[in-house]
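Batch job 17 of 40 flagged for manual review because the log was empty.
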Amino acid sequence: MAGARPEQAALSRETDMSKTEDTRAVIEGMVDGLNDHRIDDIGSFFAESFRWFGNFGCGTKTGLREFQDNWQRPFQAAFSDKVCIDEARLYMGEWAAAFGRQEATHSGEFMGVAPTGKKVEIRYMDFWKVVDGKIVDNYVMVDFPHVLAQLGVDVFKGEGWEAFDRGERDAPRPA
């Protein structure tokens, strides 16, 4: 790309690197809270006005109440016995990131699919900004097409780019 470049990493450029360990403590506690299926008191980790930015199909939640009522409660109603497993975490000042999976049972309606009782894997990536000991922003990608495929729904109707792969779609990930 010749010429001017777009600005990069504007949100994390001014992060306070001295906050890395504080950020780590908040994120580790929050993930434990999610694994304990806490909803009503999850505000001990999130600012009252925090923002949750999900990918298409997940929506955007503004404030703790919207997150609890329009993400946590419906998610837990659709998927019971849920456990969150971060496969990797990174910390940099007031920022943290993780990717991993949730393992759960499809026990309630999910995007129009009646409960199947199937065990599913829900892949995700999260980026959090922590200020004064609370998460203020959460950027999220949840792989709902993968979840729906496990429930027998191909949202791409056979037109997904897996056709370009070398047949390694279900191969284990590198350790």
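Reviewer: the log was empty due to a logging misconfiguration, but the result itself is present. The mean pLDDT is 93. Unflagging and moving on to job 18.
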